[in-house]
Amino acid sequence: MARDDEQIDYDLEALLMADGAWHEENGYVVELSAKAVNRTASRPHGIDYALVFRPVDGKPIVKFDNAHAVERKSGRFVKRSPDNDHWHRGERDTGRPYKFVSCHKLLEDFYTEIARVKNERGIK
């Protein structure tokens, strides 16, 4: 593992082991990509991740990732976080900040959002 600390994070290990893609019977795909990295200001939790729900041949409908920084709406007195954690809701969403708490919470939020979108769009 490329982590810069020796402490084992069991939530992180579980997410790393879940890395892969699953085709659902309804024509959609769930993709989990995660790898351990050194902690930086943009990835303070030591993980590079992308969790995606999309049609088999389409753009992501739900995506949680930390691949790039997102525009954060704030005033000049609001402190901005240097981390890249964000999520996308819909095919055209450029991203909105996401408060990373743990790998477990990340997965929980991802699957909760998938369930909401499926319900909203009538996807079985």
Polypeptide structure, described:
22% of the residues lie in helices and 26% in strands. The chain is built from 2 helices and 6 strands. The protein has helices at residues 10-17, 103-121, and strands at residues 20-23, 28-36, 47-55, 62-65, 86-89, 96-97. A 6-stranded antiparallel sheet has the order 1-2-3-4-5-6, covered by helices on one side. The longest helix has 19 residues, at 103-121. The chain is globular and about 40 Å long. It starts with 9 loop residues before the first helix and ends with a helix.
Rg: 15 Å
**Which shape, going by the Cα principal axes?**
globular
Please report which band the strand proportion falls in: under 5%, 5-15%, 15-25%, 25-35%, 35-45% or over 45%.
25-35%
User: Quaternary status of these chains?
Assistant: single chain
How are the strands ordered across the major sheet?
1-2-3-4-5-6
The residue fraction in helices comes out at: 10-25%
Uncertain stretches: 1-8
The domain tally reads 1
H-E order: HEEEEEEH
Cα separation of the termini: 38 Å
